[in-house]
Amino acid sequence: MAQPSHAWRGVIEHYRARVDITRAISPITLLEGNTPLIPAPRLATALAQGKTEFELFIKFEAGNPTGSFKDRGMTAAITQAVADGAQTVICASTGNTAASAAAYAARAGIKCVVLVPDGKIAAGKLAGALAYGAQVIAINGNFDDGLRMVKQASERAPIALVNSINPARVQGQKTASFELIDTLGDAPDWLCLPVGNAGNITSYWLGFVEYHRDGLATKLPRLLGAQAAGSAPIVLGHIVEHPETIATAIRIGNPARWREAVQALDDSGGHITAVSDEEILACYKTVSRTEGIFCEPSSAAGLAGIAQGVREGWAELEGKRVVCVLTGHGLKDPDTAIKGTVPPITIEPNIEALLKVID
Amino acid sequence: MAQPSHAWRGVIEHYRARVDITRAISPITLLEGNTPLIPAPRLATALAQGKTEFELFIKFEAGNPTGSFKDRGMTAAITQAVADGAQTVICASTGNTAASAAAYAARAGIKCVVLVPDGKIAAGKLAGALAYGAQVIAINGNFDDGLRMVKQASERAPIALVNSINPARVQGQKTASFELIDTLGDAPDWLCLPVGNAGNITSYWLGFVEYHRDGLATKLPRLLGAQAAGSAPIVLGHIVEHPETIATAIRIGNPARWREAVQALDDSGGHITAVSDEEILACYKTVSRTEGIFCEPSSAAGLAGIAQGVREGWAELEGKRVVCVLTGHGLKDPDTAIKGTVPPITIEPNIEALLKVID
Q1: Residue B341 phi/psi, 5° resolution?
Q2: A307-359, pLDDT tens digit by residue?
Q3: What average pLDDT does range B245-255 have in this prediction?
Q4: Contact A203, A174 (CB under 8 A)
Q5: Strand pairing category for B55-60 and B37-39
Q6: Residue B335, CA atoms < 13 Å, CB-side half-sphere
């Protein structure tokens, strides 16, 4: 079947010369990427707390097919796995990777096995992975246990590992930086994002460095990474055995790309900080109410990092152009959204009842 | 704040000359539109049941900011309302309109009131509307009751109505047809979609006719509309007092744009049919498992219409190019996804336990 001629063709085709994976087969794609970069002036004002002024854009990665940033890397990992002859792929996940792996495996017509922490992933993520037909296995353990197990499984059985330690994942994921620069005309001054397994921050940095090296950006951004306080191994400098946070997507105590993340932060003159669940939830509410942008709680960690940096005076944002990555859709975790609000009242279906309750 | 120069700027700016709403203010936009058109060859084979062959594309409207097609029309309706001085907007909704209205109202900094049928909207949709800060009011009644009430409220109070009877909604919504033609280079042979309140089918047709009239398409598509069997007023030719279906987004017994939909179906040489909840759920599962595309149940009604048309022999699809609109994300309704699958088993966190259960 011919592809339509004017269409967006997904990140592998769009950045064909730069995504270093196999060309043996056509990409397995759901036309991921091409996500909106939304100016957020009212949110900027809220985060600035009257102390500074900066320009803020939201890179809304929830616009990807499965509702999270993971699709960029997954199209590359699944394409490579299929070209290599894999019939089954496996991953450990806090939920977003699971849904993405399951979707792209379904698209490719191969089997997908995902390991998730029992009772610790959001409803929308579980729904996704199941809907796409993956074999979902819950473990009495956390993400880090799962990652260890899937590594072992991929060594002992003919199963391809598609966690972000898979180098193809980084190749696809870095296209987010390319899109940012292509849209803005240059790199931003700051890039802010949540840090869990540290694959995303590593990939963004790789993309920025590559475009800068090739003259497609005049500068490199500073990175502002945010970890949840109960799950902040990079900030603390040691593994967290029992990570805890409401931001389930970054509930990871031993990040696979720890070293690369630290290097990227150093090279960029950046900063990594720990934000409390309260700070995360406050920003999660602020972004939806001030800008109409609904993200999952983890996504708001980057915003909380900005707010904290302004409050504590360490973030040099004055007059800068700041991009904050919102990694997943609020629809991934409806329970947290509903929990934080007043339930709707119920009225009889007549106009008098309605006019009485409109406040 | 300057807009970045290379960015997608939302449907109003992108189709500036064609979206007939006010130019008094800058559009209130979340950069909606620009959604992927995904080739779906394996799904086409499944729907063809060995009886025919056609080319199938999915217009995945779930990629919009709030996860449904409603954002295209809502950017226009809220922009017009704000320009007209509205401080409050109101709508009745089965959920998607509520979330979209709430998001764009938040973006504009105005108040939003939404009426939803008590207990009859999906979890993700309620979560969205609440997260964006709308006043959500449940009614002891259905969508049709809600629509009557909000019409009355907008007549008696200084509140702007943003349901799809608002003409600005259609102006934004029709941009989906423009995108289809811009991507494919011409109109498809068939456009298939679910029909609830009939605003979407009306808008698509308006867009197709406009591009065709202006020489931007050489032909017009035939429309294939699908209603849920328990909620099929247009198919039956009379109002359904108590509409029922698992496809909550199209649980509407008295469509506001009934007349326009019938006209569009007639003018296009199209067809409208009623599909059972079983047929809808079967297609809902097939699209996620064969293509890795997760939609809400209502979205699958269009696919079910195709399957039925092939089975019953009335759909002339042989050799044709078919576009099916998936209107909302599967994440909107996680409960239906989880209900239809086997819950994950839980294992101890060790490799032997894992290797034993991988099937």
Answers
A1: -130, 165
A2: 999 999 999 999 999 999 999 999 999 999 999 888 899 999 999 999 999 98
A3: 94
A4: yes
A5: antiparallel
A6: 13
- Whether B60 contacts chain A with CB within 8 A: yes
Tokens of A263: 């290097």
What span, in angstroms and rounded, lies between the C-alpha atoms of A215 and B70? 40
CA-CA-CA-CA dihedral for B60, B203, B131, B4, to nearest 10: 70
**CA proximity to B265, closest of B314, B221, B327, B310:** B221
Contact A156 B355 (CB under 8 A): yes
pLDDT at B261: 98
- Report how far residue B237's alpha carbon sits from residue B258's, in angstroms, rounded to the nearest whole number: 10
DSSP state of B250: G
Task: Please report residues of A whose CB lies closer than 8 A to that of B4.
Answer: 37, 39, 57, 183-185
ipTM, interface predicted TM-score of the complex: 0.96
Residue B130 to residue A293, Cβ atoms within 8 A: no
Contact predicate B251/B243, CB 8 Å: yes
Signed CA dihedral, A235, A250, A35, A261: sign only: positive
How far is B319 from B155, CA to CA, in rounded Å? 50
User: What would the pLDDT profile of B64-113 be if each residue is shown by its tens digit?
Assistant: 999 999 999 999 999 999 999 999 999 999 999 999 999 999 999 999 99
Tokens standing for residue A156: 């002992």
Report the 10 Å Cβ neighbour count for A322.
Answer: 24
Has this prediction a pTM greater than 0.90? yes
Residue listed under structure tokens 């509407």: B252
Identify residue A270 by its one-letter amino acid code.
G
Q: Where are the alpha helices (DSSP H) in chain B?
A: 11-14, 41-48, 70-83, 96-108, 123-131, 143-156, 167-173, 175-184, 199-213, 233-236, 258-267, 277-291, 301-312, 334-339, 351-357
What residue type is B38 in one-letter code?
Answer: I
What is the DSSP track for A207-249?
A: HHHHHHHTTS-SS-PEEEEEEEGGG-HHHHTS--SS---S-GG
Query: CB-based contact (8 Å) between A348 and chain B?
Result: yes
